Amino acid sequence: MNLKLKDKVFVVTGGASGIGQAVAEGLVKENAIPFIVDKNEKNVESTVRSIKGKDKKVYHYIADLTHYDQCIRAVEYIKKAGKSIKGLINNAGFNDGIGLEGSSPESFLKSYHKNAAHYYYMTQLCLPDLKKSKGPIVNISSKVAGTGQGGTSGYAAAIGARNALTREWAVDLLKYGIRVNAVVVAECFTPLYKKWVSRFNDPQKKISEIESRIPLKNRMTKPTEIANTVLFLLSEKSSHTTGQLIHVDGGYTHLDRAI
After folding, report:
1. Mean pLDDT (whole number) for 51-74
2. I want to staple 140 with a disulfide (CB 3.0 to 4.6 A). Which of 91, 149, 182, 256 is the partner?
3. Would residue 155 show up in a list of annotated catalytic residues for this protein?
């Protein structure tokens, strides 16, 4: 599908693996230009090599997004390259298991900060360009804020903030014609998910148990399926969609799992 994203630069945080990588790959297929901002240099180099063809452009910058000064330098880098940002995908973060019991207030705040603050940082820093281009913002979120999970207070609080900020910014940025939406993920088999499930005595059994509770086809969501929805939200095909929390989860969050 031609989403008319050709030659447009889109910032993808956490774009070196998992969902972020799938988004970057999808952008390249649409002849857009991903600007990957990620702290894992090895993963960034691997991803850039895999998606940068002879006639394809990919920009990247190594940054720990929990540090505001590094966010500033990342955005300055793309501007110095003479590129205008046409859209932002806030994606970086992970479920670090900082729960209510057995965790300190300091670890809770650290978990919240590293999973929510950079959504604000990057959006604010990209905003001057987005106002000029009326560029959309897509926040990657999680079902955890809506369903609870247990043992992950910091991450759940951060995800709640991502959802709230999606709605807040959709209102705040109406006057500029900027659309803001979130894609809510449930069970998606990314490298981080694989790492989490490997902690169980029988990982494959755990995967089978989870998949049995996913109503549509009893399988996990693919990163490419998340990416396809993100690409749609970045395009003019979704020109009247804003302030939405769109669940791409095979019905996991809202459908009766006894189906």
Report:
1. 92
2. 91
3. yes
